Amino acid sequence: MEFREGSGRLVRLMMCALIACTPLAAQTAPVPFQRVLELALQHSGTMTIAQADQTKAHDAYLETRAGFLPQVIFGSGLGYSYGVPLSIEGSAPSVFNINSQQFLLNFAQHSLLKASKTDWNATRISLEDRKNDVILRTALAYIELDNLAARMKSLEEESQVARKAVYISNARKTEGLDSDLDLKKTQLAAARVEMRIANAQGRADVLRERLSKLTGLPVAAIETASDSIPKTPEVSQDADAASVAVHSSSDVKLADEKIRSAQLRADAEKKQMLPSIDLAGQYAMLTTFNNYDQYYRKFSRNNYSIGLNIRFPFLDFAQRARADAARADVVKAKAEAQQVRGKVSEAAVELQRSLRQLQAAEEVARLDYEVAKGTVAAIHAKIQSGDATLKDEEQARMDASDKQATYLEAAFALAKAKLEFIRQTGDLQAWALAAGR
Q1: Comparing 142 with 153, which gets the higher pLDDT?
Q2: Any idea which of 176-185, 300-309, 399-408 has the lowest mean pLDDT?
Q3: Of 18, 204, 222, 263, which shows the fewest CB atoms inside 10 Å?
Q4: 19 occurs within a structural domain
Q5: Can you give the pTM of this predicted structure?
């Protein structure tokens, strides 16, 4: 009996220890901001697509350059001949043949090669642009999720206060101190808090799902670490945002590269009218069963030729039309680049000026919250002297919690605008890298 009782106590102790340790094991460690950015850049489908485009453009450049290298083809053209030997697709029937050809002098192809290299360089700019997009999307999602966590804490406190306020108002109505309308107003305030909690929870779920898709982490493993988020940079209203944005904008750089590519392609179409020289060679091993030895006095099984293929274009109206169309593409590319510059410049100035408004709104929300906290302390002091009721204090606490949530929303709106601004001015990656220092 003593053994069984001792064993039972031991089992109960082990079960208690296991239950006590289970929540600790189930807790998810916060993922630092820098780690989330690294995972997003590694797993992002946007980056994969941009890298594939860069590889494709590089291969197109190599394909264009290959025209100046020897192209050697081994083959065979075996066939039966009756009578005078004829050709098969322009070549004599042969047991074995080798054909080689390459550009020796081709001005148009040189321009096309430069155009292909320009297109390849454009994909590098595009890759950096996509990298900035991934960083911005990931950073905004992470910061908003962290902001929502603080808002949720404030809303939970406000919900507790609201439920307590409903309880007090219901008690006061029973005592005849509050009317039905007073109770309904208190219940309405509590319902609004619950609605905001539901909205915040829904938004947090969406952000976790987004971060999960960006990083490859399980949704349940995504928790933010507030201390790992770098401070958002200060933005000066005196800086020339328009010129800085135009100088740093990937869209502007891509538009300029498009102009260069169009100019080079137009130059290539124009140079199609210039002389060109190709180096060509051919070898063929012939057979006797094709009657070559009967119809040709000096038959040789091994035959080869090598020489230059020189072309002097003289009259080609179709090529002239293609050259004119290419010049029109240059005019179009220049006009589009000018439009891009205007849009980037305008957007930068608009965002810079909106930052002043958002900063003012954030400061007003912060002071409003400070005043609300002071009001709670003042009403609490009045309760001690009998000049205020518990209902007044609960209403003040609800108001303070509401003002805190408003302040957090304003703080995120300001942080979002700042990150979008430094995205335009080319400082986003420098800010993001500061998180790892």
Answers
A1: 142
A2: 176-185
A3: 18
A4: no
A5: 0.79
Residue 102 is given by DSSP the state E
Residues 391 and 323 in one domain: yes
Domain span including residue 89: 72-105+277-312
The answer to whether position 9 is within a domain reads no
Tokens standing for residue 95: 């047991």
Same domain, 269 and 376: yes
Contact 36, 116 (CB under 8 A): no
353, pLDDT greater than 80: yes
- The verdict on 77 and 156 lying in the same domain is no
The letter for the amino acid at 69 is L
Contacts of residue 421, defined as CB under 8 A and 6 or more positions apart, other chains included, come to 235, 241, 348, 351, 352, 355
12-35 pLDDT per residue, tens: 444 444 444 444 334 468 889 999
Number of domains in the chain: 2
How many Cβ atoms are within 10 Å of 348's Cβ, its own excluded? 23
Domain match, 238 and 332 both: yes
Domain boundary among 258, 287, 312: 312
Contacts of 124 (CB under 8 A, 6+ apart): 54
Pull the structure tokens for residue 275.
């002389």
Judgement on whether residues 194 and 258 belong to the same structural domain of the protein: yes
Please name which of 237, 212, 290, 292 lies closest in space to residue 421, comparing C-alpha atoms. Answer: 237
Number of H helices, E strands in the chain: 11, 4
CATH number, domain containing residue 347: 1.20.1600.10
Q: Residue 412 is inside which H or E element, if any?
A: helix 390-425
From CA 177, how far away is CA 170, in angstroms rounded? 10
Q: Is residue 95 part of a domain?
A: yes
Distances (CA, A) of 120 to 49, 60, 117, 305, 329: 15, 8, 5, 38, 19
Which of 39, 56, 211 is CA-nearest to residue 126? 56
